[in-house]
Amino acid sequence: MLSVRGKGLRGDDVAAFMEGHGTGVRARLITYDPDGYRSKLTGWKDATPVGAALTKASLVGWTWRGGKKFAHGTKLCVEFNVVQGEPCAVIHR
Fold first, then answer.
1. Burial of 60 from C-beta contacts in 10 A (0-12 / 13-18 / 19+)
2. What is the DSSP string of 41-60?
3. What's the rounded Cα separation, in Å, for the pair 34 and 25?
4. Which is nearest to 19 in space by CA: 58, 61, 60?
5. Residues 45-79: tens digit of each pLDDT
6. Cβ atoms within 10 A of the Cβ of 11, count?
7. Assign residue 66 a region: left if phi > 0, alpha if psi is -120 to 50, beta otherwise?
8. Cα–Cα distances in angstroms (integers) from residue 36 to residues 9, 40, 76, in the given order
């Protein structure tokens, strides 16, 4: 799961959550511009393992002071080191 908070084309913070994994999970943010060009927005960051009863999960977040501006139509995605696929959010006005 990926959650992006902000206003318009500005992102203030991003949070990502992944079920089924505990320790050793890392994540990074990547973007795809409106033309499809992929770029790494952040380096790898350790996720925090959390548990409730028998459920294991990993949480990770990023915050930008003053916000981070994106072009209209940019895909902001999170990539985890332990699974394939990238949950994404499209930034729009």
1. buried
2. -S--EEPEEEEETTEEEEEE
3. 29
4. 58
5. 999 998 877 788 899 999 999 999 999 999 999 99
6. 23
7. left
8. 17, 13, 12
Contact (CB, 8 A) for 30 and 79: yes
Beta bridge pairs of residue 6: 11
Q: Considering the entire predicted model, what is its pTM?
A: 0.89
Per the DSSP assignment, residues forming a β-bridge with 48 are 59
CB 42 within 8 A of CB 26: no
- Residues in the chain, overall count: 93
User: How many Cβ atoms are within 10 Å of 5's Cβ, its own excluded?
Assistant: 12
